[in-house]
């Protein structure tokens, strides 16, 4: 039998994460970053503009969690890099956003035939902030650029199916000024924001449109060298239609790439898996409900659908999965395929 201490520690860690998220939200962490050296409660209070008694209580929480340190002079420090503090502070701030969905998720779970719900706009905005230019550039270089290198030349045509706010393809467009990129998404607000951000640049090789990935234009047959799908398939309620349309618009020598959480399809492989521990809560509150939100009988996939079953689905549509990053039988972020 599992130790009750494991359960207790999980709850304690969750409470500590919530307090850390609050510190990120109200500026305590920013104050630490600006002060740099170990500081007093009063110095933190002055820098953040927050009440010192509340600051002291927040510090007590973080001392107990082992995140904040205190020295002999009773000065406090948060001994992590600025990038780490900013990144994980923002990640922690998704917890209150998901808490706002408790009622909606509970209501849908109580139905015999769940109907799901579409993306929660505060979460999409959180996600956009999470995808910093540096993070997007690194992600593209590690995962997308190796796919683009499968074909010679830099004047390719690329479809980003489910582009969201369009950050990833703007970065690619900057790296490949001779390419032509189309970003599509069925979410009107996402395309609106993508076009707002595009207007702030001088890019001429990117175009965004509101479009259903399962119903692409007939005049796009054989149009694209690459079709990229980032966090699309596991969220979708029409996977078969999307893959059918992907096959239609790819050139005969084109490549598709589907990037989704690197989680196994098999529950026994999720035990104590820290990658799954990170991604599965996102799926419970956002990915799975989105996948259930389409026409009656929506897919209901989510991150738990997993790598192995996703790969099997792609192969059933006649695609050949090829090795680019790791052996194709190993769970990973991307599945790269060709006709």
What is the number of helical segments per DSSP (H or I, 4+ residues)?
14
User: How many strands appear in the DSSP assignment?
Assistant: 9
Q: Predict the CATH topology of the largest domain.
A: Rossmann fold
Return the CATH architecture of the largest domain: 3-Layer(aba) Sandwich
Overview of the molecule:
The chain is α/β, with parallel strands linked by helices and 339 residues long. It has 2 domains: 4-92, Arc Repressor Mutant, subunit A, CATH 1.10.10; 102-338, Rossmann fold. It is built from 14 helices and 9 strands. The strands form 2 sheets. A 7-stranded mixed beta sheet has the order 5-4-3-6-7-9-8, with helices on both faces. The model has no long low-confidence stretch (mean pLDDT 95).
Characteristics:
14 helices, two-stranded antiparallel sheet, single chain, 13% strand, 7-stranded mixed sheet, Arc Repressor Mutant, subunit A, 9 strands, 2 domains, Rossmann fold, alpha/beta, 339 residues
Q: What's the gist of this structure?
A:
This protein is α/β, with parallel strands linked by helices. The chain has helices spanning 4-26, 28-35, 41-48, 52-65, 82-92, 94-99, 102-109, 121-130, 133-148, 167-175, 188-199, 239-249, 274-291, 306-316, and strands at 69-70, 76-77, 157-161, 180-185, 206-210, 224-230, 250-259, 320-322, 334-338.
Topology:
Blueprint: H1 4-26, H2 28-35, H3 41-48, H4 52-65, E1 69-70, E2 76-77, H5 82-92, H6 94-99, H7 102-109, H8 121-130, H9 133-148, E3 157-161, H10 167-175, E4 180-185, H11 188-199, E5 206-210, E6 224-230, H12 239-249, E7 250-259, H13 274-291, H14 306-316, E8 320-322, E9 334-338
Parallel strand pairs: 3-4, 3-6, 4-5, 6-7
Antiparallel strand pairs: 1-2, 7-9, 8-9
Helix pairs in contact: 1-4, 1-5, 2-3, 3-4, 9-10
């Amino acid at each position: 039998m599992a130790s009750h201490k494991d359960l207790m520690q999980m709850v304690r860690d969750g409470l500590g994460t919530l307090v850390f998220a609050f510190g990120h939200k109200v500026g305590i962490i920013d104050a630490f970053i600006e002060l740099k050296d170990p500081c007093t409660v009063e110095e933190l209070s002055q820098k953040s503009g927050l009440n010192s008694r509340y600051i002291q209580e927040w510090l007590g929480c973080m001392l107990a969690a082992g995140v904040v340190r205190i020295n002999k002079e009773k000065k406090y420090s948060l001994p992590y890099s600025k990038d780490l503090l900013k990144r994980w502070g923002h990640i922690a701030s998704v917890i209150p956003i998901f808490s706002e969905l408790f009622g909606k998720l509970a209501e849908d779970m109580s139905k015999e035939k769940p109907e799901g719900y579409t993306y929660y706009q505060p979460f999409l905005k959180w996600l956009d902030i999470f995808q910093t230019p540096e993070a997007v550039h690194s992600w593209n270089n590690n995962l997308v650029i190796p796919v683009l290198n499968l074909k010679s030349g830099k004047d390719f045509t690329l479809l980003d199916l489910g582009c969201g706010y369009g950050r990833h393809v703007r970065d690619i467009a900057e790296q490949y000024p001779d390419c032509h990129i189309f970003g599509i998404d069925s979410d009107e607000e996402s395309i609106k924001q993508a076009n707002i951000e595009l207007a702030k640049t001088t890019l001429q090789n990117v175009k965004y449109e509101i479009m259903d990935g399962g119903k692409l234009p007939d005049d796009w047959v054989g149009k694209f060298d690459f079709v990229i799908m980032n966090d699309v398939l596991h969220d979708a309620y029409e996977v078969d239609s999307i893959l059918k349309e992907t096959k239609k618009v790819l050139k005969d020598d084109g490549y598709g790439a589907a990037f989704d959480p690197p989680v196994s399809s098999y529950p026994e492989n999720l035990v104590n898996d820290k990658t799954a521990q990170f991604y599965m809560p996102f799926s419970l509150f956002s990915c799975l409900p989105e996948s259930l939100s389409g026409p009656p009988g929506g897919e209901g996939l989510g991150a738990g659908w997993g790598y192995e079953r996703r790969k099997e689905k792609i192969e059933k549509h006649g695609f050949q999965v090829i090795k680019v990053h790791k052996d194709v039988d190993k769970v990973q972020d991307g599945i790269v395929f060709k006709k």
